[in-house]
Amino acid sequence: MIKVLFTGCTFNEEKIEKLKEKNLEIIPTSPNLTQEKLIEVLQDCDAVIVNGEEKYTEEVLSKCEKLKVIQFFGIGYAKCIDTEVAQKYEKIVANTPKVNSYSVAEFTLGLIFTLNQKLLQHHEETKNGKWEEKKFFDLKDKVIGIIGLGHIGTYFAEIMYNAFHAEILYYDKEDKSEIANKYNARKVSLEEIFRNSDIVSLHLPLNIETKNLIGENELSLMKKSAYFINTARAEIVDANALYNCLKTNQIAGCAFDGFYQEPVDLTTEEAKLLTLPTGKFILTPHTGHNALEGTKRVEKMCIENLIQIFNNEPCKGIVNK
């Protein structure tokens, strides 16, 4: 039996019992393990499904000799797993690419509606007795700038093109012409994205090249009526530049799904973004992937990955081949 620790376990008892038929013993545990407790509970485990706040540091991996596979519950494994350290200790790292991409794309649209239709401001004011109608613009025929035309960016382009007849601009280092042609999307520079778009939506992975990619130079190019959406990683955007841009009304508003510290630490410099007026900066807790259907798809792929890896079969989820 393959023993699999599952931090922040989403399986019920029936599902756990059923997986024993696949030679997988799921061990559910807390999503908030200390490093010491993590090391302790991993001692007898062959694999772990990561859905908690724990970090797989060198200290942890060096003390968990039996552990073979670190399966991240979702896509963004980099926040808690250093693949170079994992490679050093011969640990396989896997994630679940594509399975919740549509959910994030749809969530992006929700953030746009919340910003543009001034939903938070309308709610706050009307419940306090102030009856004031605020202006917004139709999404139909607007220019949408997409930074990163990967799985999520592609779904988002599809939604905006088919539902709103939007003009799609995109920025991506790779050749995406085959995808772009489906939506009459035009590849442009990063500067053109920010200068010409009514809405800019960020869908890049966080790495050395993309950290602080978006700063004052880019944000200052935006229209005053434009919105900036980030359902990728917060660190891709310079927090200070964004704060100054929003405080001086250089753009209409911004929404992030995820923050520079998760959970938010209100004592940090970046947290000043949360002091801006209601609806100027909207923050959600890294939850764009969290559709019911998406969670089931992630669960399914986590199990498929583990079975494939332990059966020495090809596995598309492995990230450190």
State the helix count.
12
Number of strands: 12
**What does the main sheet amount to?**
7 strands, parallel
Shape: globular
Low-confidence stretches: none
Radius of gyration, taken over Cα atoms and rounded to an integer in Å: 21 Å
Mean pLDDT: 96
Helix amount, in percent? 25-40%
Keywords, separated by commas or semicolons:
12 strands; 12 helices; 5-stranded parallel β-sheet; 34% helix; alpha/beta; globular; 321 residues
Description of the structure:
The chain is of the alpha/beta class. It contains 12 helices and 12 strands. The protein has helices spanning 13-19, 35-42, 58-62, 83-88, 101-116, 119-127, 151-164, 177-180, 190-196, 216-219, 239-247, 292-310; strands at 2-7, 24-29, 47-50, 69-72, 92-94, 143-147, 167-171, 186-187, 199-202, 227-230, 253-257, 281-284. Strands 8-7-6-9-10-11-12 form a 7-stranded parallel beta sheet, with helices on both faces. Helix 5 crosses helix 7 (151-164). The radius of gyration is 21 Å and the shape is globular. The two termini are 25 Å apart. The mean pLDDT is 96.
Short structural description:
The protein is of the alpha/beta class and 321 residues long.
What's the topology here?
Elements: E1 2-7, H1 13-19, E2 24-29, H2 35-42, E3 47-50, H3 58-62, E4 69-72, H4 83-88, E5 92-94, H5 101-116, H6 119-127, E6 143-147, H7 151-164, E7 167-171, H8 177-180, E8 186-187, H9 190-196, E9 199-202, H10 216-219, E10 227-230, H11 239-247, E11 253-257, E12 281-284, H12 292-310
Parallel strand pairs: 1-2, 1-3, 3-4, 4-5, 6-7, 6-9, 7-8, 9-10, 10-11, 11-12
